[in-house]
Amino acid sequence: MMADLFSLDGKVALVTGAARGIGREIAARLAQAGAQVLLSDVEPQLGPEAAAAIAGSAYHNLDVTVQAQWEDIIQTIGDQHGRLDILVNNAGISPAGNIEQSNLDLWRRVQTINVESVFLGCRTALPLMRQSGDGGSIINLSSIQALRPAAELAAYSASKAAVRALTKSVALHAAKDRIRCNSVHPGGVHTRMLDDFAALTGDAEAALVRLNAANPLGRVGRPLDIANGVLYLASDLSAWVTGLELVIDGGSTL
Ligand SMILES: NC(=O)c1ccc[n+]([C@@H]2O[C@H](COP(=O)([O-])OP(=O)(O)OC[C@H]3O[C@@H](n4cnc5c(N)ncnc54)[C@H](O)[C@@H]3O)[C@@H](O)[C@H]2O)c1
Question: Span 2-186+222-247: which CATH code?
Answer without folding.
Answer: 3.40.50.720
